[in-house]
Design brief:
Layout: H1 2-10, H2 13-29, H3 41-76
Helix pairs in contact: 1-2, 1-3, 2-3
Length: 85
C-alpha cells in the first residue's frame, strides 16, 4: 500500500522504495508520538509516506532547477582564449 502510494507520487520505482524506507525509519524514530485515538497505524504510516514522497519530489525539482541554472550559466559564459607564451 505504501509503495503504491509513493510510486504514484514519485513516478519512479527507486524513488518510491526510498520513500517507503524513509517512512519506516521515521515511524521507528517517532513511534512514541503515535496516537491511536487520532489514526490507525495504517493511516499514520500513509500520512508519513505521503509527506516523505512530496518532500522527495520537491527536492528533485529543486535539484533539477539548480542543475538547469548552472547549465544555463555555463552556456552563457564566453569561452576564454588560450594563453599564449
Amino acid at each position: 500500500m505504501l509503495l503504491a502510494l509513493a510510486l504514484r507520487i514519485c513516478g519512479q520505482q527507486s524513488d518510491a522504495e526510498d520513500v517507503v524506507l524513509d517512512t519506516f525509519m521515521q515511524a521507528w524514530r517517532e513511534a512514541h508520538r503515535y496516537d491511536p485515538d487520532r489514526a490507525s497505524v495504517a493511516g499514520w504510516l500513509t500520512t508519513i509516506a505521503r509527506s516523505r514522497a512530496l518532500d522527495h519530489v520537491r527536492a528533485r525539482v529543486r535539484r533539477q532547477h539548480v542543475s538547469d541554472v548552472v547549465e544555463q550559466r555555463q552556456s552563457e559564459e564566453p569561452m576564454s582564449a588560450p594563453i599564449e607564451s
